[in-house]
Amino acid sequence: MARESKAPSERTRVKRLNERAVYDRQGIDAILDAQPLCHVGYVRDGQPFVTPTFQWREGDHVYFHGSSASQALRSARDADVCLTVSCFDGLVLARSGMHHSANYRAVMILGRPTLIEDPELKSTLVNNFIEGLFPGRVETLRPNNAQEIKATSVLSLPISEASAKVRTGNPVDDEEDYALPIWAGVIPLHTTVGTAHDDGRILDGVEVPDHVRNFGKNMF
Ligand SMILES: Cc1cc2nc3c(=O)[nH]c(=O)nc-3n(C[C@H](O)[C@H](O)[C@H](O)COP(=O)(O)OP(=O)(O)OC[C@H]3O[C@@H](n4cnc5c(N)ncnc54)[C@H](O)[C@@H]3O)c2cc1C
After folding, report:
1. Which residues line ligand 1 (CB under 6 A)?
2. 82 C-alpha to center of ligand 1: Å?
3. If both were cysteines, with which of 31, 32, 201, 212 could 57 make a disulfide (CB 3.0 to 4.6 Å apart)?
4. How is domain 10-213 classified at the architecture level of CATH?
């Protein structure tokens, strides 16, 4: 994969172990699309908060949403945030404690999210999020009503100042330590999608849809 070697800004330039940096959009988008869980960091009254939530990407923006009453969403609006997405791919066991590590893919996006005001756009975006996870589901659902849309805030963050960092592979030990009788290597980690179960109130004749059966094939 062709790699963009330049960070979009000095503050997103990976300094520590910069050979693990990825700045091209293809690499960044692949991580964003692989993991809907994100953490949004922001400062409210001098206190840093890091709130876990869902993110989804559409083109050059990531979106996150929640209750309009959410302190996190109210604080993040028009404020400086750092949105982080990370995939934990493995534990790396070395021949010394300090060389233990992790395999991972992570993205950090800096910027100022804007609030989506238009109710129709808000509803479309939330539907896009559902559709992205479960293709074909939205057309099977009761449409969102005005009260639900009002009670939901959707924030949009441009992917303009972003970096990714990726570690893969074996532990890197001090050369002399390879002579030691110690097991070293990698324990791969994967997110496992379990078997879906219904909520016990399914009407007769309603089958498990394909978007449930096939969930997660291209994620994590
Ligand atoms: C599961 C896991 C375990 C880790 N364990 C360690 C560990 O034991 N020791 C360690 O030093 N690091 C570890 N890291 C990497 C860690 O995320 C940081 O990259 C590292 O601590 C360097 O931080 P820094 O602030 O000095 O980075 P700097 O290189 O100074 O960061 C400068 C800029 O680079 C970008 N950047 C930095 N880190 C990341 C990242 N992870 N993803 C995307 N962009 C990034 C950001 O834009 C940041 O503002 C781990 C990461 C994961 C996901």
Report:
1. 11-16, 86, 88, 102, 104, 106-108, 163-165
2. 13
3. 32
4. Roll (2.30)
Atom of ligand 1 nearest to the CA of 15: 29
CB 126 within 8 A of CB 134: no
Long-range contacts of 124-127 (CB under 8 A, 24+ apart): 125/58, 125/63, 125/65, 125/154, 126/65, 126/152, 126/154
Q: Report mean pLDDT in 10-residue bins for the chain, 220 residues.
A: 75 94 96 96 94 97 93 87 98 98 98 95 97 96 95 96 98 98 98 94 97 85
- What is the C-alpha separation between 178 and 157, in angstroms, rounded? 46
Ligand 1 centroid–CA 48 distance in Å is 18
Q: Where are the domains of the chain?
A: 10-213
What's the token pair of residue 1?
């994969």
Ligand 1 atom 18, closest CA: 16
Distance, CA of 33 to CA of 31 (rounded, Å): 5
Q: Which of 107, 165, 189 to mutate to test the pocket of ligand 1 (most atoms within 8 A of CB)?
A: 165
17 Cα nearest atom in ligand 1: 29
Say if CB 149 and CB 8 are below 8 A apart: no
The pLDDT of residue 216: 85
